[in-house]
UniProtKB/TrEMBL annotation, chain B:
Keywords: 4Fe-4S, Electron transport, Iron, Iron-sulfur, Metal-binding, Transport. This is Reductase. GO terms for molecular function: 4 iron, 4 sulfur cluster binding; metal ion binding; oxidoreductase activity. Signal peptide: none annotated. PROSITE patterns: 4FE4S_FER_1 (PS00198), 4FE4S_FER_2 (PS51379). It comes from Thiobacillus denitrificans.
């Protein structure tokens, strides 16, 4: 049986999207890590040890600590969105793993309902962009569209989960096929095709957009530096050259 | 001074978040640096034909040198968490004074010239070609940021608008739009050794005069030594301490502390300035050049300890950067830093803040104080932004909040903090930091002081506070000038060592 045009298009699309995502992110991460940090600029009070920094960073990633201090509304919506997203993505791992990992199995029912958290969170963030004059002022078209894109992905996914089911077994065969370079037919429901096209778009946008906040956070000198400038001499290579002239 | 009239904000019970009023501060432009100053600093003094290329080139160079700038320009999600955190936005309601909007002035250009999305879809991501209008916006709004880092506390990625402001000023300098105030000061310190342009002989006279005053006042011959070799401590303090009021009261305080503790010390003509305006322009080389004067003086005088007087940004540079810039500190393994570090006494932190030193001396009983001598005062403490969010004191994180308060409480009996959300890491800038302490920015300064004045007003009403102590020369100068506009008496403003000076026992 030959593969349909749609299958071929989607297969090509996902190969390209995956390539852009991986190459783009690796490029950015390498670029960040190669760019020097000439001065100690942690926002103090800051931890005085490496393990303290790991703890500080963990609090930023897991509970959005600074955001919590700043604004409770953004924090609630932002955290609902991201935690929902995390569970949803964890649940999605079953399409890419055979046999399905044990914990991915456990996450399944939670992931299903986490989609609601995720969409509510994003709706709240989108509402703020329209309603709060300060946030409206700083929003660019891409800020709205990013949320619209993610909401559309979420809603199309939920449509499949809760209303018009798709052939999960065939879908999984398609993605495992992609991973093992043996393309299999893709189920051709409209909802699924929309969901997947939008996901591919998201993957392409990721490394060239503000979604770089995810890797960026780990490279933020105000958060990842140890507060020990009196005890350790911190010096960048380009700056060390100045010392030799003295 | 031709500054226009402006309305002074009315103090309310709470610091309210204003509705946006676009463009209301666009007119506030600091005076540009003249040719002579720009020449001396090695910058052009007017826009040349190629200003645009120069600006973009400089931006590219800085992006390659500072990870902070690259990550911060990429990572912002426009979440809005920082929008109500800047005292200049709260005081002026100009949206371009919201931290993220201030960053966006540069981000729009960064996106256009340095990112794929901005090259392909500029409208979509808010990317713009660099124009003179944008350059003028930079000049207005990068000089309405005191680089206080309050925004960086609240940003989920720690984006520090101060880093962007510094880069913006550096680019402006390189296209010929320098600021008169900062660049004149930098040239004075390079030529003479301090920000005030106070030459050696004048300094000597001033110190002698102060010695006479102290003796007349206390009957004790407390000395203020200058350029003495082989003593234990080199004290580096902001030059305002030598003759400005109320700064000089703190200088007298330091001298009394050294006297009472029997620590031999000296000031230095060559390093007669702790302040370092190189920080404000984000120019590493210029900051290093200013800081090198202190290393040179310390080596020349052969001192074992370096102590820094009351100055916020100076303490940031000293604490966070001196080791990097000049090798004053520990842990260096290169010849340059070893030369400095082997001379320093490892039983003390290097550099040490004067509050760390005095607090230790009082706690260990080496000097005696009588807090009842300050019973006429009800005191509060203003955390200076650079001390609070860009440095530390003592060994524990947050020591920069605890140690000055401990010290104050040991020399006064009546102390009340201002509201929590206005002190500590959330402290509000005085409104005059980061190179804004100039008369041509008076409107920005007065309006930017509104949040602090509101918090102060509340403790004045509730606890009859009549003295706000602080450890920053810029804060002192700023508050004595702007607080009277809000109806406070300028004698409410003073240094922590001004309180120590009154309470210390000299015999
Ligand atoms: C290390 C992982 C991540 C961390 C720590 C993180 C953290 C944050 C934080 C603190 C915010 C600001 C608050 C908010 O608006 O929610 C934010 C915003 C945002 N994040 Fe993430 N994020 C991560 C990964 C992701 C990923 C993987 C995506 C998308 C696929 C994403 C999409 C977004 C979007 C679209 C916004 C902007 C929301 C708005 O428009 O207000 N994040 N993120
Ligand atoms: C190649 C990647 C992806 C594939 C193959 C995929 C496929 C699917 C499928 C088949 C469903 C329906 C599940 C069911 O019927 O039980 C679904 C649901 C969903 N998808 Fe995706 N999806 C992908 C990526 C994403 C991404 C990146 C997001 C979020 C940004 C997302 C968000 C959702 C949501 C919220 C649901 C509904 C809740 C759930 O069942 O987990 N999907 N997706
Ligand atoms: S650093 Fe301070 S002055 Fe500058 S934008 Fe941030 S809060 Fe405002
Ligand atoms: S808090 Fe940080 S991420 Fe949010 S808008 Fe401000 S600078 Fe951008």
């Amino acid at each position: 049986m030959g593969l349909s045009t749609v299958t071929m298009i989607y297969a090509g699309m996902f190969y390209i999207a995956a390539l852009v995502l991986v190459v783009g992110l690796v490029y950015k991460i390498v670029d960040y890590s190669r760019t020097p940090v000439p001065l100690k600029i942690p926002t103090t009070p800051a931890p005085t040890t490496r393990s303290g920094v790991i703890y500080r960073m963990a609090k930023e990633v897991v509970v959005f600590e600074s955001l919590f201090k700043a604004n409770k509304w953004i924090w609630v919506f932002g955290w609902l969105f991201h935690f929902g997203l995390l569970l949803v993505l964890a649940r999605h791992l079953r399409y890419f793993t055979e046999p399905v990992w044990f914990w991915v199995g456990i996450v399944q029912p939670f992931g299903k309902y986490a989609s609601i958290m995720m969409v509510i969170g994003m709706a709240g963030l989108l509402a703020r962009r329209f309603l709060v004059d300060r946030v409206r002022y700083i929003s660019t078209p891409s800020d709205y569209l990013m949320l619209v894109l993610l909401i559309a992905i979420g809603l199309s996914g939920m449509l499949m989960t809760f209303v018009v089911h798709t052939d999960i077994v065939a879908l999984k065969a398609f993605f495992l096929g992609l991973m093992y370079l043996d393309v299999q037919p893709l189920p051709q429901d409209l909802t699924l095709l929309v969901h997947l096209a939008l996901v591919a778009l998201l993957m392409v946008i990721f490394p060239i957009s503000k979604l770089l906040h995810a890797p960026g956070l780990f490279f933020s000198p105000t958060r990842n530096q140890v507060d020990n400038p009196r005890e350790h001499r911190h010096i960048a290579a380009w700056a060390a050259r100045l010392d030799q002239k003295n | 001074m031709a500054a226009a009239e402006f309305d002074i904000p009315k103090l309310k019970d709470d610091i309210e978040i204003p509705k946006l009023r676009e463009g209301v501060m666009a007119h506030a432009k600091t005076f540009p640096a003249a040719k002579a100053v720009q020449d001396f600093m090695g910058y052009p003094h007017e826009l040349g034909e190629d200003w645009k290329e120069r600006a973009i080139d400089k931006m590219g160079e800085l992006l390659g040198k500072y990870r902070s700038m690259k990550v911060f320009l990429d990572a912002c999600v426009h979440c809005g968490a920082c929008t109500d955190k800047c005292h200049y936005y709260l005081g002026t309601s100009d949206p371009k004074n919201m931290p993220v909007a201030r960053q966006d002035l540069m981000r729009q250009v960064y996106r256009r010239y340095f990112t794929t999305a901005g090259k392909l879809f500029p409208k979509l991501v808010g990317a713009k070609d660099l124009t003179k209008d944008i350059l003028n916006d930079w000049y207005s709004y990068y000089y309405q940021c005191s680089e206080c880092r309050r925004c960086s506390v609240f940003c989920p990625y720690g984006i520090d608008t101060a880093e962007i402001t510094m880069a913006g000023r550096e680019i402006l300098n390189h296209v010929g739009m320098g600021q008169k105030y900062s660049n004149e000061i930098l040239s004075k310190v390079h030529k003479i050794g301090n920000n005030l342009g106070l030459p050696g002989p004048a300094l000597e006279d001033t110190l002698e005069g102060l010695e006479e005053d102290i003796e007349a006042d206390t009957g004790v011959a407390v000395k203020l030594p200058l350029d003495v070799k082989g003593v234990e401590v080199l004290l580096v303090t902001p030059s305002a301490d030598f003759f400005s009021e109320p700064h000089v009261e703190s200088l007298i305080g330091y001298a009394k502390v050294f006297h009472a503790a029997g620590i031999s010390w000296t000031l230095s003509t060559h390093a007669s300035e702790a302040g370092n305006f190189g920080l404000f322009n984000g120019n590493y080389e210029s900051m290093r050049k200013v800081a090198m004067r202190i290393r040179d003086a310390a080596l020349e005088l052969g001192v074992k300890r370096i102590v820094v007087g009351e100055c916020g940004h100076a303490w940031r540079v000293a604490y966070s950067f001196w080791n990097t810039l000049t090798g004053i500190g520990y842990g260096g393994d290169d010849p340059f830093s070893i030369e400095m570090q082997k001379q320093l006494d490892p039983t003390y932190p290097q550099p040490q803040h004067i509050c760390e030193l005095t607090n230790d001396l009082i706690k260990s009983g080496k000097i005696k104080v009588d807090p009842s001598l300050n019973d006429d005062l009800v005191v509060t403490f203003h955390d200076s932004c650079n001390v609070a969010r860009a440095s530390r004191m003592g060994t524990e994180p947050g020591g920069q909040f605890i140690i000055p308060r401990e010290l104050i409480k040991s020399v006064v009996n009546n102390f009340h903090d201002m509201a929590d959300e206005t002190i500590g890491e959330s402290t509000f800038c005085c409104g005059g930091g980061g190179g804004l302490l100039t008369d041509d920015l008076m409107e920005v300064r007065v309006k930017g002081a509104m949040p602090r004045a509101t918090a102060l007003n509340n403790v004045v009403k509730e606890h009859q506070v009549n003295f706000m102590a602080m450890i920053c020369a810029i804060c002192k100068a700023q508050f004595t000038k702007v607080l009277p506009k809000y109806g406070f008496n300028m004698s409410m403003v003073g240094g922590v060592h001004q309180l120590v000076s009154k309470a210390i026992k000299l015999d």
